[in-house]
Amino acid sequence: xxxxxRLNHLWEPLRLFAQQKPVLGVCAGAILLxxxxxxxxxxxxxxLDIDVARNAYGRQVDSFxxxxxxxxxxxxxxxxxxxxxxxxxxRVGTGVKTLLQHQGExxxxxxxKVLAGTFHPELTDSLAVxxxxxxxxxxxxxxxxxxxxxxxxxSSIN
Length: 158
Fold this sequence. Notes:
Blueprint: H1 2-7, H2 11-20, E1 23-26, H3 28-33, E2 34-38, E3 48-53, E4 64-70, E5 79-83, E6 88-92, E7 97-102, E8 105-111, E9 114-117, H4 128-138
C-alpha cells in the first residue's frame, strides 16, 4: 500500500489531506494513520497519536467477530466488530479518545478530525461507525471536540 502511494505520488497529498480533512481509517487505514507501527515497523502518515502492532490478533485463520463495548461517555452502544488480521492499538496518546473497546483494549479511537478502528465496521449490519463519521463530516468547519459529543439514536440506523 505504501509503495503504491509513493509510486503514484499520493503519499504527500494524502498526508496533507489527513491533516486538514476528516479521515476514517479502518484496519490497514488505522495502521496508515498511526504515529508508530510495529510488527514490522513501517512508515505511516502519523496523523493520529497512537501506536499499533500489525496483525496482532493473528493470521487470517484467526479472524473473529466480537461484541465491542463503549467506554464511559462514548456516543456508541455496543456493536459487533469483525477482526481480520487486525492491528492492535498498543498506545493511545493523551489527545486521543477511545470510543469502543474489546476486552478492555481500544479498537475505535478519535483525535480531532481523525477516526480509526482496528476492526471492519463495513462487514456488519450496523451503520453506527459510518453514521458517526458522516455526521462529523457534515459540519467539517466545526471543530471535533470530545467534550461536545452527543449521543446518537443508533437503534434508528442499525
